[in-house]
Each structure stands twice: as structure tokens, then as C-alpha cells.
């Protein structure tokens, strides 16, 4: 049983002993409520005052039992409270230090601002993808949930520069602003871009009018969770097979066919080749779309399309085909 649960159990036990003492004195000695409460308290605390009234034999026997059980509960309670506070201080001191050390070693990670309902889903997806991240939230319950899930976290205000710096914003691959209100997400985006203008920021928005403000603050992408959920429900009703296929290829790591976004970097075997040549050298991977360096998105790219450094590809293929496409690590 956890210490805090023992502490709650102890409080309930002490209240039960106190109630039993008051009821016992009132029933056995026919004392008024205040006298019964006073006698019970001085007995349990062993302060040594005289009895309020002369006790009968039955009252003395009851008092002996109250001392044995009540004082024992009091001593046990004191020991449990001391143990509880020592454990809390120990966890805060050494657990917090270990957490900071682990966060300071993160690199190419995601800074997740907000660990509410949306943030938890983001964390779960990042976990499945094997992407390191650190969550930031001010709420104690959110922090407790992050602890229970085994995630790295910082209890603090994500709108503050020092909090983002502690989360390693300078070393991060991106930031997700998933706080519970649009104003916080705008400030988070402003702070992140102020500290590191090139960091990729995906921000959550609830109100439609917040999109333009988030864009002006520097957000690269703005997501409306309710709109996404609505579109997904509609697609499941209209084209369930298509949704199942996309879910399988995007989110299942144990499947033969996978859907990935791959950037053409140094050492990529397709750099400088046409789309057809790239497919041949990667064992038949299917190139679904190409996003050129200037931002142009080709959704049905011709086979003669030249693949250049910095291009991003949407590719369907096996794990081995994708590894070949990515080139040496």
C-alpha cells in the first residue's frame, strides 16, 4: 500500500477512534457531548489531566481500551506522517534532479506544451513512433498523469522563455502547442519563435479566428481538433476502407506496407535522379507526392520529376525500401 494511502487510512482510523471514545463516554457515563469530547482528547493525547468526572468501573475499563488502541493509532500515525513527508521531499529532490538530467540530454526531440486530453494523445503517438519528447504543464494532475505514463515533464508555464529553454527548445526538432486555450498557444508560439525562429511549430486552435493570430505569431501549422474529429467521422461513414488503409500504413509499425514522409538529404540514393530512377533504385517504393524546396506540392508527380536535396517525399513501401530511400544514417 502506498504511503499516502496509508495516511488516508490512518486519518479515517483516528476519526473512528475519536468517535468511538465520545460515543462510549456518553453511553457509559451519561456525560454531555463536550465532556465526552474533552475526555477522549486528553486520553488519546496522554496529556495527564484528571478525569472530567469520576469514572465507573465500566468507564475505567473502556478508558483502558481507548488508551491501548487510540494511543497505538496515534503513534502509528506520527510515524506514517514522518515517512510520508520524507518520501515526498526525497522524491522532489532526487527525482527532480534526475528528470532535469534526462531532459538536458535530449536532442532532436519534441517539446509538448500542454498535457491535457489533446496533449496526452500527442504523447501517445510520439511514444508509438519512438520520438523523444518532454511535456510542459502547470497543472499538478497533468504532471501526475505524465509521471504515471513514464513521460519526461516540466511543471511550469510554457509561455515563459526560461521554461522552454529548460525543455531544450534550442535542440528540439519541433514544438507542439496543445494548451487548453488559444491565448496560451499564441504566447507559446511567440516565445518559441523568439528563442529559435527556425523551430517547427504545430499549434492547436479552438476558435477559427485564432488561426490568423497563430500564423502571425509564427506557427507553421494550425490544427483544429474538433474539425479533424468531424472530418474523420464523416470519412469513416463514407469511406471506411480508405481510413483503415491509411491508419494501417501510417500507424502500424509491424505491417509490411508503410506510409512515410522522407526528406531527400545528403547521402540519399535518389538525390539528383528522376522519380522513375528513384523508384527503381529503392526496390519499387511508390512515390505518392513530392514537395519541392520552394513549397510546391506535386500530388501526382510525373515520372520525369527530378528529385533534389531538400525535397520531401510521401512514399508507400516496405520497411526495407524506406530504409534504402533514407540512405545511410
Short description:
The protein has 329 residues and is of the alpha/beta class. 54% of the residues lie in helices and 14% in strands.
Number of helices: 12
How does CATH name the architecture of the largest domain? 3-Layer(aba) Sandwich
Shape: elongated
- The order of strands across the largest sheet is 3-2-1-4-5-6
Total separate domains: 3
For this structure, the quaternary state is single chain
Tally the beta strands: 10
Q: Rg, please?
A: 32 Å
At CATH level 3, the topology of the largest domain is Rossmann fold
Helix content estimate: 40-55%
Structural class: alpha/beta
N- to C-terminal distance = 47 Å
Structure description:
It is a single chain. The protein has three domains: 3-101, Helix Hairpins, CATH 1.10.287.70; 106-228, Rossmann fold; 239-326, Regulator of K+ conductance, C-terminal domain (Alpha-Beta Plaits, 2-Layer Sandwich), CATH 3.30.70. 54% of the residues lie in helices and 14% in strands. It is built from twelve helices and ten strands. The longest helix is centred in the N-terminal third of the chain and has 48 residues, at 57-104. The two termini are 47 Å apart. The radius of gyration is 32 Å and the shape is elongated. By secondary structure, it is an alpha/beta fold.
